Amino acid sequence: MAEKPRYSIVAPVYNEAGNLRRFYEEVQAALDSTGEAWELLLINDGSVDGSQEIMERLAEADRRIKVINFARNFGHQIAVTAGVDYASGSAVVLIDADLQDPPAVIPRLIAKWKEGYDVVYAVRTERKGESFLKRTSAKLFYRMIHRITDISIPVDTGDFRLMDAKVADVLRQMREHHRFIRGMTSWVGYRQTGVPYVREKRIWGETKYPWRKMIAFALDAVTSFSFFPLQIMLYISLILGILSLLVGIVISVLRITMGEEFFGGQATTIVLLLLLSSFQLFFLFILGQYVARTYDETRDRPLYIVASTAGISEPGVRNQRVNRAVNPDRSQEDGLREPGKGPE
Do residues 134 and 146 make contact, with C-beta atoms less than 8 angstroms apart? Predict the structure, then answer.
C-alpha cells in the first residue's frame, strides 16, 4: 500500500505542454528535499496542445503524480477546486504550472506551516516580465479588494499558497460557482502569514488571463465578498438628488431674475437626462451581476465534470460526492451520502 502523502501539490494546467516536464522536475527537487511523502495533482482544464499526453506519461513514470482530465475547459478557479477535492495530504499547496511561481518557494511555505500557521500565502515583491500597465492594474486591484471587501485579503498575493488539511476541508464545503480562491481562504480564518518571493516571467506560452478574463475575475472577486457596489448606489442617488434640488433652485432664481430667455432651449434638459440614464444603466448592470450569480447558484450544477483520471485508483468520498451530481445512480449504488448526514 502506497504511503499517504504528507503534501499535496495542486497545479491547474491549460495548454502548458512546453512547461510541464520542467515544472515536474522543479516540484520533484523541491519536495524531495523535505524527505517526506508527497503527491502532485495535475488538473487538465481542457488543454488542446498535447498537455494531457505529457501529464499521463509523467503519471506512468512516477506514481506520485495524479492527473484529472476535465470534460471541457471549466476555468482556473474550478480546476484549483478539483485539485483540492482530490488532495489527500496533511497540507495542500496551490501553484500554477507555468513556472512563474517557483516551486523552490514551497519548502519555505512548509517551514511556516510547521511553525503552526494554517494558511501560508506567497507575497509577490516583484513581478518580472509584465508590462507597467499589468503591474499597475494588479496593484490597484489588490488594494481595492482589500478596502471594499468584508474580509482582510492580503495585497499582492495570488493563489500560490499552502493550506492545512482542516482549511482544505472547509474549502471543499464551499461550492459556489463564481469562485475567488484567495478570498475564500482568507474568509476561512485560522492563523495566516505570508512569505515574500519574486514572481518570475513566463518562459513558454502565453498568459491565460487576458484583459477580458481579468475583468470577469475582478467582478467575481467583488461580488463574492462585498456589497459595496450595491451600497454605493444609495450614496450616488442621494448626491444626484441633492444636486438636482440645488440645480432646480438655481435655475428658478435665474429665470425669475434674468428672464426665461436666459435658459432657453432643451440642451440642458437633454444633457441631464443622458447623464441620469447612464447612471441608471450602470446601476442595472451592477444589480444584474448579483442577480446572475444568484441564478447560477440556484441551478446547482456540478462545478466540473471529470472525463478521465490517471494515477488515481480510488477517488475519495468528496470527489464521488461531486460526481454524484453527474451520475446519481452510481452514487446511490456506492451508498454515498452528503457529508455530515448520517444513515436514514
Answer: no
Looking at residue 326, what is its pLDDT?
A: 38
d(CA 117, CA 7) in angstroms, rounded, equals 15
- The C-alpha cell that represents 10 in the structure block: 495542486
The pLDDT of residue 60: 87
Of 123, 223, 168, the residue nearest 10 (C-alpha): 168
| Count of CB atoms situated within 10 Å of the CB of 23 | 22
Query: Which residues does the chain have with pLDDT short of 50?
Result: 1, 315-344
> Which of 297, 319, 293, 294 has the alpha carbon at shortest distance from 306?
319
Alpha carbon distances (Å) from 73 to 68, 232, 311: 12, 35, 21
163: which 3 cell numbers? 493550506
What are the C-alpha distances in Å from 3 to residues 64, 66, 162? 10, 14, 21
Amino acid, res. 79: A
Interatomic CA distance for residues 195 and 255, integer angstroms: 66
The answer to whether 67 touches 56, Cβ cutoff 8 Å, is yes
- Residue 331, all three cell numbers: 452514487
Q: What is the pLDDT of residues 68-84, one digit of tens each?
A: 999 888 888 889 999 99
Query: Which SS3 state, helix, strand or coil, does residue 167 take?
Result: helix
DSSP state, residue 156: T
How many residues in the chain? 344
List the one residue out of 160, 29, 52, 37 whose CA is nearest residue 98.
160
CA-CA distance, 331 to 324, in Å (whole number)? 5
Cell readout for 7 is 503534501
How far apart, in whole angstroms, are the C-alpha atoms of residue 8 and residue 344?
Answer: 34
Q: What is the pLDDT of residue 344?
A: 35
Dist. CA 8–CA 11, nearest whole Å: 10
pLDDT for position 271:
63
Q: What is the tens place of the pLDDT at every residue in 162-206?
A: 999 999 988 888 888 778 887 888 888 889 998 888 887 767 556
* Rounded Cα distance, 218 and 44, in Å: 24
- Residue 191 half-sphere exposure toward CB, CA atoms < 13 A: 8
φ, ψ at 174 (rounded to 5°): -95, 100
Residue tagged 481579468 (cell numbers): 214
